[in-house]
């Protein structure tokens, strides 16, 4: 009987023990911008230092990475990105780094769900452009993207991803995506996304963007992702109504949301909105972000459905610049205190300690 009780107690302790929280999941991003890079290097270390802490599948995949080279001029393993991706077997279980020679790749690229652990790697300081001209009229909105990713553990670095469809005329629909990310646990380093309406479909899963640039006109970051944007420039072009985010959270239990930390909001003209309520419960937070005078004084577009005033989560925390003044913000802008802000300022927001790795070296 004593042995039985002991085993029962052990089982209860296992069931009710609190989850292990790793330090890098709770250490907040520093307020001082000069400290951001040291914070990142301390909390997102390369694979050899992370053994035993990563998702088991990821840990196995990173142990023996494979490198494929792509060069349109010859001399590589392939001359196109799509050919390189198709060479990866369905059910892939190893990290495959597709190293791209600089140049312009005019391809519509899809990384399908059966090919996880793919990295698209451009050369730092050289332009590696992925371009296509897909439009919603031909493909449908979310299928118009130049790059579509369905596979887990994706990574991209040092790339320019463009949709070269023309800017739609004011008042007309012209969705044309640069990228759709519909996969969990994806990271983007030093990538630039160019489009107009709906540039980046940041859809499902946990995502991390660092040192990136995103350009567009209306809803140019949209979807239902749980994403942390660090040191990323959000640049609005064109004229008329411009909105940065249209987050697609639809209920209070949904853990998704966009967190912009140490970012910069720039653009031409006046009257850019930080976000709008495309759906009923969008969650978008800007922290330590520099906002130019291009930001509309009200900050966020007025909700067309008045009931959404009570369900949106629009947050601003210690932002700077002439566009950051809160005096004329819409009434439902959240006042975030230090404790609440930390939730949006750590890797825990995207469950990063179990999967986030730095970019490989070219």
From TrEMBL:
Broad EC category: hydrolase
Keyword Hydrolase found: yes
Pathway connected to this protein: Glycan metabolism; pectin degradation; 2-dehydro-3-deoxy-D-gluconate from pectin: step 1/5
EC number(s) per entry: 3.1.1.11
InterPro entries recorded: Pectin_lyas_fold, Pectin_lyase_fold/virulence, Pectinesterase_cat
Protein keywords: Aspartyl esterase, Hydrolase, Signal
Location of the Pectinesterase catalytic domain: 68-352
Signal peptide: 1-23
Similarity annotation: Belongs to the pectinesterase family.
Protein name: pectinesterase
Origin species: Camelina sativa (False flax)
């Amino acid at each position: 009987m004593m042995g039985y009780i002991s085993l029962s107690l052990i089982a209860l302790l296992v069931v009710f023990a609190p989850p292990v929280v790793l330090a890098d999941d709770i250490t907040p991003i520093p307020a001082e911008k000069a400290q951001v890079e040291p914070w990142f290097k301390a909390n997102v270390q390369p694979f050899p230092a992370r053994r035993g802490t990563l998702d088991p599948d990821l840990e196995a995949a990173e142990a023996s990475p494979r490198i494929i080279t792509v060069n349109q001029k010859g001399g590589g393993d392939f001359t196109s990105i799509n050919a390189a991706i198709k060479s990866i077997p369905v059910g892939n279980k190893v990290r495959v780094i597709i190293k791209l020679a600089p140049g312009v790749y005019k391809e519509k690229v899809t990384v399908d769900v059966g090919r996880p652990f793919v990295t698209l790697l451009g050369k730092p300081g050289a332009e590696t452009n992925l371009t296509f001209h897909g439009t919603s009229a031909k493909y449908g909105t979310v299928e118009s993207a130049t790059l579509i990713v369905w596979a887990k553990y994706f990574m991209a670095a040092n790339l320019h991803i463009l949709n070269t469809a023309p800017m739609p005329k004011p008042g007309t629909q012209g969705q044309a995506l640069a990228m759709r990310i519909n996969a969990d646990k994806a990271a983007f380093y030093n990538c630039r996304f160019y489009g107009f309406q709906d540039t980046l479909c940041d859809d499902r899963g946990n995502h991390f963007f660092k040192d990136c640039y995103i350009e567009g006109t209306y809803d140019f970051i949209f979807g239902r992702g749980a994403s942390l944007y660090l040191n990323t420039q959000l640049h609005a072009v064109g004229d008329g109504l411009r909105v940065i985010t249209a987050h697609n959270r639809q209920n209070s239990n949904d853990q998704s949301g966009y967190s912009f930390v140490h970012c910069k909001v720039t653009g031409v003209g006046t009257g850019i909105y930080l976000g709008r309520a495309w759906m009923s419960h969008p969650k978008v937070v800007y922290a330590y972000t520099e906002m130019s005078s291009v930001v509309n004084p009200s900050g966020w577009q007025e909700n067309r459905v008045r009931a959404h005033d009570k369900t949106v989560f629009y947050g601003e925390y210690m932002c700077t610049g002439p566009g950051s003044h809160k005096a004329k913000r819409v009434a439902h802008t959240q006042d975030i205190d230090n404790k609440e802000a930390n939730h949006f300022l750590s890797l825990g927001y995207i469950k990063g300690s179990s999967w986030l790795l730095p970019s490989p070296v070219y």
